[in-house]
Amino acid sequence: MFFNLLINSLGEIAALSAASIWACTAIVDNGLGQKISPWKMTILKGSIGIVAITLTLLWQGMSFPILNPVSIGFLLLSGVIGICFGDTCYFQSLYCLGPRRTLLLQTLTSPFSALLAFTYLHESLSLINWLGMGVTLVGVAWVISEQSSEQSHNKRSPQLQTGIIYGVLASVAQAIGAVLSRAALTQTSINPLWSTVLRLSAGVAVLLLWYFLQKRKHSPRRQQQKMFSGLPMGTVVVSAFFGTFVGGCLQQTAFKYTATGVAQALCATSPAFILPIAMWMGEKVSYRAIQGVLIAYAGIGLLLGHV
C-alpha cells in the first residue's frame, strides 16, 4: 500500500522535495546578493547545472531522445521565459525583499500556472485540488507575512516596491515556463534530465548573448574578461548543484507526473520549510508562523488526497 502511494504520488513528492531544497538555497543566495548581480547569478547557476546534468547523462549513458520540433521549441521557449527572465527577476526580488517575502510572491506562480494550464492545456482540476491549492497558499502567505517591526522598518519603500514588481514578474514568467514545459513533457517520453538541460541551455544562452552584445557596445574589451572575477565560486557551486541541478530535475519530474497547478502549488511551499531551518539556526519563530506552517501542510494533504 505504501509503495503504491509512493508511485502514485511521485510528482507531488518530487515537488515537495524541490521546495525543501529551494528553501535552503534561497537563504544562501540571499547572502550572495551584495556580491553577484541577478543576471550573473542566473548564468552561473544555470551553467553549473548544465555541466552537472550533462555529466550525469553521460554517466548513465542516456542518449538524446527523438523529439518532434514542437516539443523542443516548447522546452527552449520555456527556458528563455522561465529561466532567463523568470529566474533573473526572482534573484532581483530576493535581493530586495529577502527570502520570506520573495517566496511569498512565488506562491502566485501556482494559481497563474493552474489558470494557464486550464486555458491552454485543458487540464481539469477537481474541487479538492482547488481547495488544496487555496489552503496551501493561505498557509504559506500566513507564514511569510509575519514580519518583525525591525525587519519592516529596514525596508525602504522604493526597494520594497521594486522587489514586489520583480517578484510578480518572476511568478508570471515561471508560470508560463511551467506550462510550456508541461506541454512538452506530456507529449513525449523525454527524461526530466534532458528537459532540464534544454531549458537551462536556452536560458543561459540568451543571457550570455545579451551580455556580450551589451559589453561590446558599451564597455572596453578588457572588462569582458572580468565577468566573474572575485566571486565566491565555492558557495555558488554548492547552491547551483542543489538548487539548479537537483531542484530543477525534481521540478521537471513533478511537471511530468502531476498537473501543473498541483506541482506549482507544492513547489511554492518553500517558506514552510524555511521555518524549521530558522529554528535550527537559533532564530526565534512565533506561534503565528507555526500556525501558518500547519495550514500549509493541511493544504498539502488535500493536494495529495487526489491520487
Can you describe this structure?
By secondary structure, the chain is mainly alpha-helical. The protein has one domain (7-148, 155-223, 231-304). The protein is 80% helix and 0% strand. The protein has 14 helices and no strands. The chain has helices at residues 2-8, 10-31, 38-60, 69-97, 99-106, 109-121, 127-145, 149-154, 157-187, 192-218, 233-257, 260-267, 270-280, 287-304. Helix 6 packs antiparallel against helix 12. The relative contact order is 0.22.
Tell me the number of structural domains: 1
- Helix coverage percent of residues? over 70%
Q: Which quaternary structure do these chains form? A: single chain
Radius of gyration: 19 Å
Uncertain residue ranges: none
- Please state the overall shape, judged from the principal axes of the Cα atoms: globular
What would the keywords be for this entry?
307 residues; mainly alpha; 14 helices; globular
Brief sketch in words of this structure:
With 307 residues, this protein is mainly alpha-helical. 80% of the residues lie in helices and 0% in strands.
Question: What's the SSE blueprint?
Answer:
Layout: H1 2-8, H2 10-31, H3 38-60, H4 69-97, H5 99-106, H6 109-121, H7 127-145, H8 149-154, H9 157-187, H10 192-218, H11 233-257, H12 260-267, H13 270-280, H14 287-304
